[in-house]
Amino acid sequence: xxxxxxxxxxxxxxxxxxxxxxxxxxxxxxxxxxxxxxxxxxxxxxxxxxxxxxxxxxxxxxxxxxxxxxxxxxxxxxxxxxxxxxxxxxxxxxxxxxxxxxxxxxxxxxxxxxxxxxxxxxxxxxxxxxxxxxxxxxxxxxxxxxxxxxxxxxxxxxxxxxxxxxxxxxxxxxxxxxxxxxxxxxxxxxxxxxxxxxxxxxxxxxxxxxxxxxxxxxxxxxxxxxxxxxxxxxxxxxxxxxxxxxxxxxxxxxxxxxxxxxxxxxxxxxxxxxxxxxxxxxxxxxxxxxxxxxxxxxxxxxxxxxxxxxxxxxxxxxxxxxxxxxxxxxxxxxxxxxxxxxxxx
Length: 345
Description:
Elements: H1 2-17, H2 26-41, H3 51-83, H4 85-99, H5 102-115, H6 121-130, H7 143-150, H8 162-209, H9 221-249, H10 253-267, H11 276-287, E1 291-292, E2 295-297, E3 300-302, E4 306-307, H12 317-344
Antiparallel strand pairs: 1-4, 2-3
Helix pairs in contact: 1-4, 1-12, 2-3, 2-8, 3-4, 3-8, 4-8, 5-7, 5-8, 5-12, 8-9, 8-11, 8-12, 9-10, 9-11, 9-12, 10-11
């Protein structure tokens, strides 16, 4: 039952405190280790090394980061449980709190929501559909919303219009429902803080070096592939959980389930990542909007297939709706795994 108590403590801490920028954070320490190794092993990218050497360097970085992370968490737990059982449970709970980020994800996406001008979405949608001059331009200044969005997405945000900002915010909430919330819950339930933080280390490596650009095309390949493997099962479990809980979050559950399932089965592979479109397709289907499509990263246009159907233009409220789906899925999976752990121990 120790792990059940620890997971309850960690989730409650996140609900109350969120992701504090003032407290020392283990994931930031992992990020610093990755940055140090990156600077030493991949100074000039493929300009200085062959593809084979870069791949080997990336594999070495991954092994070192995982080994250091796993050993540090194991030693911390051993020390805590050596003091007392209660101290061990508390340590596990705090580590779980640092591994999950539902409140942070919701808070940052809602910062984009609040920064968007309060326009009448329904009226703007009607005008856009009718092709009326002006359309979304009546929303005035979008710079603050773009700035807020740039803090949570990797794409270029400077040229995004109101609809593009909303779509990008919804996409990042949908994708990170698995990456930053439910996957850590699942790995914590299966293997405790050690496995949970090994996952966080792999996910952090992917977010820092798992790019297909000149510097990381080969060096970051191992990190990107590892993250795909780590998230393969969680992303699919999360997609089905989002679909299930959406019927309880939104009105007309039969319509929501039918639409979400249809888009999921059709568009769940519409992404270069084998996992990202799993949750994005459910979210797009449930909301009745179209996500993804062409985007710009680091000044370079990237062609991506669309996900979902444009049954209506995106609305500001869709960001809040995506956040509600994220929380519903997190609570459902947390309750399920805690129940299973409780029964099995």
